[in-house]
Structures are given as C-alpha cells and as structure tokens.
C-alpha cells in the first residue's frame, strides 16, 4: 500500500452505517489479504446481524427523503460520484489489484467499466416515465407511476470488487432507492473506497451503507427485514438459490446473477485470428475468474488442429505475474481453494484421457498462480465441461455438425454467456437464436457494456443489469384510478 493511497482518504476499514464510519459493535475485525503475496493489507470491521439491522434502519429513514428528491437532483449526485470515481481511477485500481490480484491495467479498466454504470444511470434517473391508460369508463382516468421499490440489499462477489457494486447501486439510487451493500469479505476495501466517494459526491448519509463480516448473518438479517424490499445478488448459484428461498418469507423482489458455463463455439468457417483473439479475451480475462468467461471451447473438426495450435501459441505469450509487474496479463487466483479446484478439474480430465497442450500445473511463482493452460480432447462428461472452472484453463472439445454444437452448448443448467465464431451470416442468426443464453457474442469475446442488458436464463439468474431495462429491477408499477365526481 503506497503512501499516496494511504493519504488519499480512500483506505477505509470500518463499515458505513448512516453516513458514519463504524467499528463492529463487538470490536471484531477480519484480515484482507493480497492474493499475490499473502500480505495482510488491512483489518476491517467484522460485522453481523446487529450492525446490519442498524444499516437497514438508516437506509429506510433515508429512503423516505431520497425517494422524494427530484430526479434531476439524484442525477447530479450520481454524476458527481461518477466524476469522483474517474478522478480516483489510479487509487481505486491499486486497491483492486491489491485485494483481488488482477493486473493494474485491467483493474483500472474495471474502474472505468464500473464507473460507466454510475454515469449511465445518472442519465436514466431522468427518464423514469409513467403512463396514461385509456380508461374503461367516461368519468375515469387511469395512470401508472414507476415508484422506487425501497431499501435494497446488495450482495456482491470478489471478482469485480467495484463494478458488481456500481451496476446495482447506480440504478438503485437513480430510482430513489437506498442500499445496504455487503461486499465480499475477500475484497471489501474497494467497496469502502467507493462508498467514501459517494459521500463526497453529496449522496446523502444513509443512502449507501456498507456492512461486511459474517456473510450468512448479514444475509439472514437482510432477508428477515420487512423493510428490505429487494435483494440483488451476484455470486454462486448455490448462495443465489438460498437467497431466493430466503426472500420468499417476506416476498421481496429478487435479482440474481449466478454462475455460467459459457460455450465458445469455433466453426470451420471462422476467421482463425478473430477466433483466437476472441477466445483469449473470453477465457483469460481476470485469469478466467468471471461468470461470462468461456468455460468450454467447442471446436469443429475441420479447424480443430489449426485452432488448437494457434490458441496454444497465443496463450503461451500471456505473461503471468503479480498485478503491479510491468506487462503482467495473468494475475493469481483469488485463494487456495480456487487453485485447488482448478487442479482437481485438470487432473480429472487428464485421468480420463484429455491431453495437456500447454500449462496444466501450478506456476513457478508459487502462491495461487496457475499456468495459463490449454487442454485438448476434453469430453462432455468431464468436470471441466460440466462445472465452472473459474481459472485460466481452456478446455477444447471436438464437434462435427452445427446441431451437435448447439446440443452440447445447451446441455447445461447454466445460461449466461455464449460465444460463436463464424463468417457465415445465416449461421450467425441460426445458432445465436438457438442458444439458450442471456448474452451471445458473435466474433467477439468481450461483450459486457453498461448500455446492454446483462443477465442469464435457466439457473444463471433472474433479471437484467445495465441498460434501460436495469432500472425496472428497482421499480414497482403503481396504478391509479381517478373517479372525476
Ligand atoms: P464466490 O464463489 O464467487 O465467492 P459466493 O456466492 O460464495 O461466490 O459469494 C458471493 C457473495 O455472497 C459474497 O459477498 C459472499 O460473502 C456472499 N455470501 C456467501 N454466503 C452467503 C449467505 N449465506 N448469505 C448471504 N451472503 C452470502
């Protein structure tokens, strides 16, 4: 942690309740580590049910006033927050690299991406239009208002410590909601810094609260409170299902962004360079630790050998290193459990006949570094095909026909992102529409943007984030019938 970062005022270690930086009531703390070095970066407040309930109360009180502020005023506050996030791109990027591990350039890229949601929703705040409906009787008038849902509980993961927060909190605040954020305990420092900037932007105290510590206790408190009207979650499918079940007791609105099992389909007619570049981007971003990362690379027989060679060559050039190392493109995995999962999946595949074309073992840098890996002859029944590996491993599976590729791609309970590489226009449409996925990239491996709806089908989730559609997740439609006496 540099002196500049220390003196920036952005290095916060307490929770944020009602605009006040607050210790855990019992004084407990938890350590935040740098995954690349194991170094302890900070001791942050380790909170639970009591602190969560107080944060909910303050969010509720603030909701009463914030929801009545004009849209233009809310928009200005969000715009100011965006400006501050961008002005502190370097410091926020450093925090992300320190606690999450991704290379600094990628981390600063996440700050721009994360901030873009705040900018976009600052603009959308002004466009929460209602509707007037032709009435069924002559003396009646019917109209519809879109009203903010209320207090929002936002539970976020470690892989995008900033962006997963802003794409929930941006639209929530824009609509007039207030939030209690529970960031991942692995990456709370970025969340706390972003919250500090929200205060500096003039977003009222109590509109943004941050609680971290005992995840199940905090989650249960959010679920139990009738004042929390919405839960928005990004993370594992298992926890998402628990939250959805828990939200039933108080019938909350729920948005879930859960696990994926993204197929990346390379057809014989693909442009080889485009396919390699796209697969590299879709697979190795954040060392493979995103829910839209290509999890299975399905390659048609006619191009298999050529593609496998070209991809292996390209992957060999990915420089592995600690995030502040010049030129590093692949950082460490988030923790030991993540590393062991990758190892287990690779070992299982090899034991069943898959072939390591590149990498396939821990990196000589030690810690949680794993070599960027390409594995050939992977089969559909292997763990690498059935579950998210969340690491820098590209498994190649062969297919013969387009129908077979579509069947293999859809043969999963997940349905978040899919990628296809082809130069045939008819095939583009045919296959894109046949894929049971919320997001499809054609000849492109990077498809996340604040202006398009992001979300999954099947067990990959509910609801959409980003874009004009992302606003509706935080709004209720209220219908009014006026009788003109
Ligand atoms: P990942 O495997 O990506 O860490 P998790 O679903 O475990 O995914 O974590 C995503 C977020 O969910 C984190 O903030 C984590 O602390 C939180 N979380 C985990 N278990 C629970 C729970 N029982 N209730 C509420 N939040 C939880």
UniProtKB/TrEMBL annotation:
Q: What class of enzyme is it?
A: oxidoreductase
Q: What is its EC number?
A: 1.2.1.24
- Please give the coiled-coil regions recorded for this protein: none
The signal peptide annotation in the UniProt record is none
Q: Which organism is it from?
A: Xanthoceras sorbifolium
From-to range in the entire protein, with total length: 97 to 581 of 640
- Would the keyword Oxidoreductase be found if you checked this record's keyword annotation? yes
Q: Does the keyword Oxidoreductase apply?
A: yes
Top-level taxon of the source organism: Eukaryota
Active site, per annotation? 257
- The residues covered by the Aldehyde dehydrogenase domain are 21-477
Q: Which UniProt keywords apply?
A: Oxidoreductase
Which pathway does the protein contribute to? Amino-acid degradation; 4-aminobutanoate degradation
The name this protein goes by in its record: Succinate-semialdehyde dehydrogenase, mitochondrial
């Amino acid at each position: 942690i540099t002196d500049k970062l220390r003196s920036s005022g952005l290095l916060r270690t307490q929770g944020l309740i009602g605009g006040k930086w607050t210790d855990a009531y019992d004084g407990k703390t938890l350590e935040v580590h740098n995954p690349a070095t194991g170094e302890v970066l900070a001791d942050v407040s380790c909170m639970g049910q009591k602190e969560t309930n107080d944060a909910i109360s303050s969010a509720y009180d603030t909701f009463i006033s914030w929801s009545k502020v004009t849209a233009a005023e809310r928009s200005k506050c969000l715009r100011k927050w965006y400006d501050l996030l961008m002005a502190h791109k370097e410091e926020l990027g450093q925090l992300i690299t320190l606690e999450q591990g991704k290379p600094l350039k990628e981390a600063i890229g996440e700050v721009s991406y994360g901030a873009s949601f705040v900018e976009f929703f600052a603009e959308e705040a002004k466009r929460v239009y209602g509707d007037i409906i032709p009435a069924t009787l002559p003396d009646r008038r019917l109209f519809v208002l879109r009203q903010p849902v209320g207090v929002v509980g936002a539970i976020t993961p470690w892989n995008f410590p900033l962006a997963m927060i802003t794409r929930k909190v941006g639209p929530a605040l824009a609509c007039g909601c207030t939030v209690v954020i529970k960031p991942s305990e692995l990456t709370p420092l970025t969340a706390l810094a972003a919250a500090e900037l929200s205060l500096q932007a003039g977003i009222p105290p109590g509109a943004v609260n941050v609680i971290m510590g005992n995840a199940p206790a905090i989650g249960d408190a959010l679920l139990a409170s009738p004042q929390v009207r919405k839960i928005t979650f990004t993370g594992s499918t298992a926890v998402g299902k628990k939250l959805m079940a828990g939200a039933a007791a108080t019938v909350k609105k729920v948005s879930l962004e859960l696990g994926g099992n993204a197929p990346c389909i390379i057809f014989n007619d693909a442009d080889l360079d485009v396919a390699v570049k796209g697969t590299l981007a879709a697979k190795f971003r954040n060392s493979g630790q995103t829910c839209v990362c290509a999890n299975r690379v399905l390659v048609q027989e006619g191009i298999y050998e050529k593609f496998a060679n070209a991809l292996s060559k390209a992957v060999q050039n990915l420089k592995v290193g600690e995030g502040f190392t010049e030129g590093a493109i692949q950082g460490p995995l988030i923790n030991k459990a993540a590393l062991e999962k990758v190892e287990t999946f690779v070992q299982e595949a090899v034991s069943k006949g898959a072939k390591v074309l590149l990498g396939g073992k821990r990196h000589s840098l030690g810690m949680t570094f794993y070599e960027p890996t390409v594995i050939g002859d992977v089969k559909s029944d292997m763990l690498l095909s059935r579950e998210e590996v969340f690491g820098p491993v590209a498994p190649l599976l062969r297919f013969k026909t387009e129908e077979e590729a579509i069947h293999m791609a859809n043969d999963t309970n997940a349905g978040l992102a899919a990628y296809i590489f082809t130069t045939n226009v008819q095939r583009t449409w045919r296959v894109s529409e046949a894929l049971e996925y919320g997001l499809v990239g054609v000849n492109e491996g990077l498809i996340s943007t604040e202006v398009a709806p992001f979300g999954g089908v099947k067990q990959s989730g509910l609801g959409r984030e980003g874009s004009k559609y992302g606003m509706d997740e935080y709004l209720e439609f209220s219908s009014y019938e006026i009788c003109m006496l």
